[in-house]
Amino acid sequence: MSSRSKTDQLRSLLRLLNDAANTILTEWEAEEQIILDSSQPVTHPSVPTAELFEARRIFLGACGMCIDIVQDPLIRLTEVVFSHLTAAALRVAAEARIADILAKADPNEGLSIKEITRQCGIQDWKLVRVLRCLCGLNIFAETRNECFINTPTSHQLVGNEQLRFNSSMEMSAASAKLSAVLFDPIKTKSTSPRETAFQEAFATTMTLWEYLEHVSKGSSASSLGQTPLDIWTTGMTAGAQVELPTLCMDYPWGDLGPCLVIDVGGGVGGKSLELAKHYPNLRFIIQDREDVLVQAHAVWHRDYPAALAAGRVAFMPHDFFTKQTVIGADIYLLGNILHDWPDDECVTILKNLRQAMKLDSRILVIDQVVHTTVGSPSMKTAPPPLLPNYGYASHYAATRTLSMLTLFNGTERTPEELEALAAQSGLKVMKIWECRSMAYITELRRADVVM
């Protein structure tokens, strides 16, 4: 890119940044006014308005492009090479409960590394390097030499076991073996969940979940006080904490009337539980393995016993690779299911549901939807000169799909890939609901029904 082109592009980005920043400031001021005026209803605090969500995306995408233009390319590539160490540093901080240790620190003085070390047991001169790595990203802050405090970002970890476990989930070992699997002439063609980078890293033929169950049996607790399986299952709910409020608000659940929702492979039914709290006309059947349903019943008894007492939720053992036994439900919910599986298995799952659908049934797929840098007519396009998918603001979806590939030979999918799966299954994509979070809702209907 010539200096003139870079100059023009940077000026355009600065205009976008200025406009987005003004919108963000206006929205923040409005939020403060709503809090002060108790007569106005307060929406879920983690859900931004549509205007704020869009301004954030534009701002982040523009910042990403500014870095690309301004940063020396060789230095930028070097930073990417070493970026895995940032995740490693966060994992150390999470396991050591650094955020909890700093929660009682004086916000001006901070807590000395000596005192932090006394409470967590990590050698001080090593821990200080870990924390400084994270301070550069404002995850923690160093108030004076070797004294640290929480920031608004690290404060999210305080007392939050789910998020702490999510930050501690070990994926780096598997991702380090991704290139070995991709360059293997046999494994590069495989779609089996038993021939992934995960198996290469841990020298096993078991799938991820089989392995976690195996190593958790009779194993002692980790430094987190939990077995490996507990860490993963608890950590995964942290993502749901971010997604659930917008999934409840950005799809027209309230317009459906009385409905039966089948939560297929729903685990403990976390998504259904949140929906049940918001929409009293919805009834639910949670389908999963029997051992999972035991946990599910306990979760509902603890978190929403009224739904159990009212008969609004039932639990049914079911394998989604077999025929769906609940015929004619209003909604079949597939939350974070399809991304675990290659196309052929996804078609099997969808066909089983298609055969159970009545004319007006719908399948709601909750997953990341990959919006590529070339754009898609099914997705909102960012304003120029941003990349059509908002660039850096959409980067998480691209890394998430690599995670699915690394662990399962699965993938997050583009709108076009979802449409292809639907067509092979006797279905059609009606709409992709772009929620104000990391996951979207893709609505599928029977292909033989004219809407």
Any chance you could write out the topology, listing elements then pairs?
Elements: H1 3-36, H2 50-70, H3 73-81, H4 84-95, H5 98-102, E1 111-112, H6 113-120, H7 124-135, E2 140-144, E3 147-150, H8 161-168, H9 172-175, H10 178-182, H11 197-202, H12 208-216, H13 228-249, E4 259-264, H14 270-278, E5 282-288, H15 290-303, H16 305-309, E6 313-317, E7 331-335, H17 343-354, E8 362-367, H18 395-408, H19 415-424, E9 427-433, E10 440-446
Parallel strand pairs: 4-5, 4-7, 5-6, 7-8
Antiparallel strand pairs: 1-3, 2-3, 8-10, 9-10
Helix pairs in contact: 1-2, 4-7, 4-8, 6-7, 8-13, 12-13, 13-14
What can be said about this structure in brief?
The chain has 451 residues and is an alpha/beta fold. It has helices at residues 3-36, 50-70, 73-81, 84-95, 98-102, 113-120, 124-135, 161-168, 172-175, 178-182, 197-202, 208-216, 228-249, 270-278, 290-303, 305-309, 343-354, 395-408, 415-424, and strands at residues 111-112, 140-144, 147-150, 259-264, 282-288, 313-317, 331-335, 362-367, 427-433, 440-446. It comes from Wolfiporia cocos (strain MD-104) (Brown rot fungus).
